[in-house]
Automatic annotation (TrEMBL):
This is TIGR00266 family protein. InterPro entries: AIM24, AIM24_sf, Trp_RNA-bd_attenuator-like_dom. It comes from Agromyces rhizosphaerae. It comes from the Bacteria. Signal peptide: none annotated. The lineage of its organism: Bacteria, Bacillati, Actinomycetota, Actinomycetes, Micrococcales. It holds the Pfam family AIM24.
Amino acid sequence: MDVEITAGPAFAMGVVTLPAGGSVRVEAGAMAMTRGDIEIETSTRGGFMAGLKRTFGGESFFVNDFRSGTGGQVGVTATLPGDMAKVTLDGETALMVQSGSWSASDPDIDVDSKWGGGKTFFSGEGLILLRCSGAGDLLMASYGAIVPTELAAGETLTLDTGHVVAFDETVQYSVRKAGSWKSTLLGGEGLVTDFTGPGRVWLQTRSSVDLIGWIKQVNPQRSGSDR
């Protein structure tokens, strides 16, 4: 997938250049522009259950396939301001992507969902991770800049749960309190995720969970009796 990422890391857009006969799969609503000979086909890609599983993973029920007969471009953006990164999958190691971060990929990449169990439930990040597998390129987005890290076997990286973008399936992870219950409840750190290599981990420099909390703090919702 020929991708040029522009306007990053604050307001990144991924411009995918399609050759004659080429195509790219894009998250519904992520297309910002097209140029040249581009056609679009909307589907669930894999049927009703496949679309439903993506919905549980924080993605849209539908995806859009953009195709070009003679060549063209598709511009892809994310909802929140931030960066984008292209990741190449080798067909052997799958990539686990946090819900909302998958933006586009080669049609040969299978974007499925996988239960994270109680680990992601207690982290407040949702029950589902998207499992991206196959050989090809994938474009993912973040809130803030994206920082990649390579972990050696047995090496551990600890992230605030709201800063996780993606990680290789070879990386083991577990969620725990940042410290004592006092630190968790009063210190503002909450829960963290320990990642143990080998493999790659991508983090984002901002947290959408913190953003939502800040918005609620400065603009609290009125109760029914106040209306």
